Amino acid sequence: MGGVERRPTVTQLNVRTGYATVNPFLITRDADGLMRFLTDVFGGVDHPDARTMDDDGLLLHAELQIGDTTVMFAERKPGWPFTPALLQVYVEDVETTLERAERGGAEVITRPTDFFGDHVFSRFLDPWRNLWWVYSVAAAPEGGENDTSGDDGSVDSAGDESSAADWQPTPQLTYLHDTLLDAFPRLQDPYAAGPTSHSSS
Fold it and tell me: pTM for the full model?
């Protein structure tokens, strides 16, 4: 009608407790094993009331709450394609999280690396061949060189624009980039050669 199109909005008021605005759905073989792994690594909490089995005896729906997000699961059926998941998660301690993941059979793709001074960044590939971006927030000293906010807490946008214009690749960023490129060819179906147990118990 010639006016400005109004974009739809979704607010937290529309979301049930324990669910984020967007919640991932993982469809995989041995979904129960993956849920046990994520419980061990991230302290996930099962939603037993959500568990539903299909007529063929395979898991149709299950839920695990990790922090403020609910991750949903289903068992991959015969003939369904392999669909690796790419997920980002914030944790309190990246090193400890990676140690737990490695004990469960995960492969560390990117070792903990400083990310623009205010985050620690890493990646791991779980035994189901899902790739996880693992972050923690690094505490920066108030008023330090990474503090670009004004007295009222607002961000100095002019400073951000200057930083963006002057941005140059660093060894850390090159490492983050290259390890991601190396990881993607390994996102292959772990069951392509036959059934394998991934139980971390």
Answer: 0.79
The DSSP secondary structure of 144-166, one letter per residue, reads: STT--B-TTS-B-HHHHHHHHHT
* Residue numbers in the chain where pLDDT is lower than 70: 1-3, 10-13, 140-167, 194-201
Q: Are 8 and 63 in contact, with CB atoms under 8 Å apart?
A: no
92-140 confidence digits (pLDDT tens): 999 999 999 999 999 999 999 988 788 899 999 999 999 999 999 987 5
On whether both 27 and 98 belong to a single domain, the answer is: no
Please spell the DSSP secondary structure of 59-124, one letter per residue: EEEEEEEETTEEEEEEEPPTTPPP---EEEEE-S-HHHHHHHHHHTT-EEEEEEEEETTTEEEEEE
CA dist 198 → 12, 62, 104, 157, 159 (Å): 36, 18, 9, 47, 48
> Which CATH number covers residue 164?
3.30.720.110
Residue 106's domain spans which residues? Answer: 84-190
Angle at 160 between CA 157 and CA 163, to 5 degrees: 155
Residues 25 and 72 in one domain: yes
Give the count of domains, the chain: 2
Judge contact between 55 and 77, C-beta under 8 A: no
The reply to whether 175 and 90 lie within a common domain is yes
